[in-house]
Amino acid sequence: MKPEAIKVACSNCNLRELCMPLGLSTEELNRIDDVVATRRKVKRGTPLFRNGEKFTSLYAIRTGFFKTCIATEDGRDQVTGFQMAGEIIGLDGIVNDQHTCDAVALEDAEVCVMPFDRIEELSREVNALQHHVHKIMSREIVREHGVMLLLGSMRAEERLAAFLLNLVQRLHARGFSQSELVLRMTREEIGSYLGLKLETVSRTFSKFVEDGIVEVRQRHVRILDTDALKRIVNAQSCH
Amino acid sequence: MKPEAIKVACSNCNLRELCMPLGLSTEELNRIDDVVATRRKVKRGTPLFRNGEKFTSLYAIRTGFFKTCIATEDGRDQVTGFQMAGEIIGLDGIVNDQHTCDAVALEDAEVCVMPFDRIEELSREVNALQHHVHKIMSREIVREHGVMLLLGSMRAEERLAAFLLNLVQRLHARGFSQSELVLRMTREEIGSYLGLKLETVSRTFSKFVEDGIVEVRQRHVRILDTDALKRIVNAQSCH
DNA sequence: CGGAAGTTTGATACCGATCAACCGATGTGG
DNA sequence: CCACATCGGTTGATCGGTATCAAACTTCCG
């Protein structure tokens, strides 16, 4: 949990095109190196931050896989997202200067710590960075609109199909297979994200296997028929 | 629909403390007047912007009431939020330079048009404005987390109770009653937002009336027992 | 190796969707 | 101003999808 004082540079990071704006001048690139203060390793099962903690920084995921979730006093729990390399977490903390959700590593992970006051400072001077920050926040808002659509109007099969397609698409953008993936989260966590119980998630996986749409061996999933998944997502509740 | 060339000033707007940062110097206040280019009237039932339209501006609601919703090709439709005076809409458009949802006036409305490039320009110079923009976006993200919790884990009564409490709370912050409100949206729109069918919304209202928690006359709602509503929201799915 | 955690599958219950009928409010044109 | 059409809302009956409860199995990990 101890912050590690490794000095790092975005300018030669292979995730740069995911985290950072494109088309920067060399001078701007060098300045942007300053937004990352340190890196921090987070062990599997361990929180990067927790609900109620003071907000200081955004985090760019270098390696590993996170979930963010909110818990209420009465024991309810909702996974609000799964995040992978190149994605930014911590945006929830800006509004009240404290985090309103937990971010937990689902596998050993490493993040770049980006103090938010430094981001604000630098984005006053580098227009591309300013706009980039705005885009990242807007993207998160739009993503959540999609989740609301899913939770508000889709049935179990549609939700799981949409979930799988979204995951492979993001993994593919990072150079992984379009058809094979390893789930880093449990059935229960998938269920929490999708508004389903873990048994329903399990049953729906089984149904997809029966229908020859996917192969599932524990957390290893191979998608055999992407189009079938797309058809499931787009099929309106027929009648 | 024609933009009207009324020159307006945030500095003497009675909604300023809702839209704009607090604690500005007189000089900063005067500069901020420049973010509002024009005002625009929107008739009831008419869109302020639509999915796919080019994004140019954020809008601050001066009067009236809006819904934002996304529609899919296959006929699904999801209300993603209801917005009232002092709230900002259009944030979804930043990421891809085009809007990804429709914003429709539920009653005759007027908005302040704030060209986004001007916002970015000015927030490079006025730190308080910069941070304010970040807070507005973060607040929207946190709000959507709450909706995800609602859609993912609450039952019909809990959803409607949470919805009513949220509405009166926001209305109260604008000087309206804590216990009386007029719904500007139909049962169907409430249902879409809450992930329920209109019949279920209607039945749940009826149940609340039976239990003496609210009085309902069409769209006029009087809350008789706020604590009961709060208890309903916080009651975990018991077993 | 043993226990805990995670997953699958079955049986049953229940909440909300669906289908349908009716009612009331609103608004429009003759 | 009234007749009538339309839209929104309520209520009832029934159906279906997902939750719940339960048991067995597998995998993981100390």
From TrEMBL, chains A, B:
SUPFAM superfamilies: cAMP-binding domain-like (SSF51206), Winged helix' DNA-binding domain (SSF46785). GO terms for cellular component: cytosol. Gene3D superfamilies: Jelly Rolls, Winged helix-like DNA-binding domain superfamily/Winged helix DNA-binding domain. Residues 154-227 form the HTH crp-type domain. It holds the Pfam family cNMP_binding. Keywords: DNA-binding, Transcription, Transcription regulation. Signal peptide: none annotated. GO terms for molecular function: DNA binding; DNA-binding transcription factor activity. InterPro entries: cNMP-bd_dom, cNMP-bd_dom_sf, Env_Response_Regulators, HTH_CRP, RmlC-like_jellyroll, WH-like_DNA-bd_sf, WH_DNA-bd_sf. NCBIfam families: PRK11161.1. This is Fumarate/nitrate reduction transcriptional regulator Fnr.
